[in-house]
Amino acid sequence: MSVTSRYREAWEGFWREAPDEQGAVFWDAEPALTVARHLALFEPHLTEPGLPLVDLGCGNGTQTRFLAGRFGQVLGADLSAAALDHARAADPEGRAAYRELDASDKSAAQTLHAELGDANIYMRGVLHQCEPDDRRPLAETIATMLGGRGRAFIVEPSQAAGAILKELATSPSGPPRKLAPVLRHGIAPGAVSDEAVPGILTEAGLTVLTSGTLPLVTTEHTPDGTRIELPSVWYVVGRAG
Description:
This is Class I SAM-dependent methyltransferase. By secondary structure, the chain is of the alpha/beta class. The chain is built from nine helices and seven strands; from the N terminus they run ααβαβαβαβαβαααββ. The protein has helices at residues 5-17, 35-42, 62-68, 81-89, 106-116, 135-146, 159-169, 180-184, 196-203, and strands spanning 53-56, 74-78, 97-100, 120-124, 151-157, 206-221, 227-239. A seven-stranded mixed beta sheet has the order 3-2-1-4-5-7-6, sandwiched between helices. The longest helix has 13 residues, at 5-17. The radius of gyration is 17 Å and the shape is globular.
């Protein structure tokens, strides 16, 4: 299974138009407020920190570059070639490697696992943006890439975040400047219930080792200058058995 051409084209269009500077995209918050907080929750559960680390859905690579400063081998993987162009341009020293990957494609996941072996995974806000039919294949890709030794940190906006985004999108003054391009390209977050996510993971052969809640920081602010934060749920998972 692979993603629809509409979905791929939506992401390509978004990233082709996205500015180069860090922080210009709605979710592109600085690593100190995002991945660094997540690693504090993730690292205690890594059984083999020396495994390759894959930033799945890396976008323009802001979080990937931070991860490359903490782990020996880091790969940023994304569906969008245009996103990876941004990531490579922002990483001229090549601290991380980058790979175009359709994470709903079983054969692509198997090929990458054959190349890297078991890997640890960091994934922020990807599942809720998937087409419904691609959610289970995405979870199966994670299971394939983890193998028997890897662990994954998955963080997704909660249902409550959907209500906040809907309110922002339908504001009488229009959506916030950085959210507007996301909506315009048709890649607004999908509705995945909080109860559904653990089921999607376990059906793909993953075990939820621990979970919790945490605000997901964005780069956008309300008119009064308050930074917009979205409620999120995070999971640390490993392959069952």
